[in-house]
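Repro:
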Amino acid sequence: MSKEIFEEMHQLSHNNDRRYILLMIGVKQLLQEKKQNRYNLLEKLKSRKKQRNIQAKEWS
């Protein structure tokens, strides 16, 4: 009986470790996506700034 309990506890521990690893992989992917989106937003802002042609006009 103690061997069965040990095997069950071992299996539960293994399952928890696997869930933790999958969770960490998912968190890393989300952080990478956020970082990429932030980079893309900065690139869009830079390109818009370059496209604007600002010229000084005469005062009335």
